[in-house]
Specification:
- This protein is mainly α.
- The chain has one domain: Tetracycline Repressor, domain 2 (Orthogonal Bundle).
- It contains nine helices and no strands.
- α1 crosses α2 and α5 packs antiparallel against α9.
- The termini are far apart.
Length: 193
């Protein structure tokens, strides 16, 4: 008779996400993962596979959560409010006092994507699906005459994604945090017609 799992997979995954997020892939050891999950090595391997497989599952769970929050923020029928809600979500997250772990996706982009094709592919897909949501909101704002039309919706969404990445990467430096709350209004000023 097979033994039942004696742990909450969601709680374990949350602990794993936070471990990789805080330390990065290379600096997170199996001993670290055992400590944060309370699981033994055999249980981790049986449930998730090796360290890399566990990292990929953790990153995917994080990306799915981030996409869901983005979709919710950009779902506002007002294009201006949608973009404002999304950037406010990012800047509020980035500006949290005492937090300097940045964004798990951006950290993974820097640490892993240059030499891990699977991580690069996951992040490319994430950028694509968030980019489509942004482009739709921008195009709707252009049609309504709210947003500038001298640049295409695609060009503007690319600018917003790069700005978002910079915002999230900057959150790792405490001295930049005071500037992050102003980013939403600055982005809207650039977008307005």
């Amino acid at each position: 008779m097979a033994r039942l799992r004696e742990f909450d997979i969601d709680e374990v995954m949350e602990a794993v996400i936070n471990a990789f997020w805080e330390r990065g892939y290379e600096a997170t050891s199996l001993a670290d993962l055992m400590a944060v999950t309370g699981l033994q090595k055999g249980s981790i391997y049986k449930a998730f596979g090796d360290k890399r497989s566990l990292f990929l599952k953790a990153l995917q769970a994080y990306l799915d959560r981030l996409y869901s929050l983005t979709r919710e923020a950009l779902g506002n029928p007002s294009p201006e409010r949608a973009i404002a809600a999304w950037f406010q979500l990012l800047s509020d997250t980035a500006a949290q006092p005492g937090e300097t772990k940045g964004c798990f996706a951006i950290n993974s982009l820097i640490e892993m994507a240059p030499h891990d094709p699977d991580v690069a592919k996951m992040l490319e897909y994430q950028y694509s699906r968030i980019g489509k949501l942004l482009e739709t909101a921008i195009a709707n704002g252009q049609k309504a005459g709210i947003f500038r039309q001298d640049l295409s919706a695609q060009q503007l969404q690319q600018m917003l994604l790069i700005t978002a990445n910079g915002t999230l990467a900057s959150s790792r430096a405490a001295f930049l945090k005071p500037h992050l709350p102003n980013i939403t209004e600055s982005v809207l000023a650039v977008l307005r017609a």
